[in-house]
Amino acid sequence: MSTNFGDENVYSTQNSGWGQMLCVVRFQAPLTGTIDSVSVYFSNGAAATTAIGCVYADSTGLPGALVCKSASETNIATSFSAQWVTLTLGAGNSITNGTYYHIGFAAKSTADNLVIYQSAVAAPLRSLQNAGPAYPAIVDPFGAASSSGTTQKMSMYATGTAAWSGLIVTRKLQG
């Protein structure tokens, strides 16, 4: 059974000009198992855009070592209205209940016209960005992060699958 964690709210404050950027937000895992995807509420202008999902371990409140990333880019259609875009993650995606992680995305748009959605009021979660190497490289570890100038929540969540730890009991039927 899948569980979403993060922020599934669709906020009205638009933050435009996203293009070649790596952005992550800190969340606490509600399960032990795997993290399968990252979903971000985007809208896009006229230029073609691609994105990759990523998850970083927490290092004293900041993103540290890379846990996993998308195996391939997701193409985001040009000129689409706001919607959830799901970025499927690749292998190595184990998470632990109660542990903090930084979920996010790297995006590339030729016109830096990708729009993300945020809350209008300050919140304890903040987005981070890293100028890093040229997209689609996901840096590991995250490195020196610079604040995006906001402490607002972002419309972004992850989907995970709990590990099943039950026993399988088989019984031979006599007949």
Describe this structure in words.
The protein is mainly beta. It has one domain: Sandwich (Jelly Rolls), CATH 2.60.120. It contains no helices and 15 strands. The strands form 2 sheets. Strands 1, 2, 4, 8, 9, 11, 14 and 15 form an 8-stranded antiparallel β-sheet that branches. Strands 3, 5, 6, 7, 10, 12 and 13 form a 7-stranded antiparallel β-sheet that branches. It is globular, with a radius of gyration of 18 Å. The model has no long low-confidence stretch (mean pLDDT 75).
Q: How confident overall, as mean pLDDT?
A: 75
What portion of residues is helical?
under 10%
Instruction: Give the uncertain stretches in residue-range form.
Output: none
Based on Cα principal axes, name the global outline.
globular
Biggest sheet features? 8 strands, antiparallel
- Number of separate domains: 1
H/E element sequence: EEEEEEEEEEEEEEE
Q: Proportion of β residues? A: over 45%
Please identify the structural class as seen in this structure. Answer: mainly beta
CATH class: Mainly Beta
**What name is given to the CATH topology?**
Jelly Rolls
- Work out the radius of gyration: 18 Å
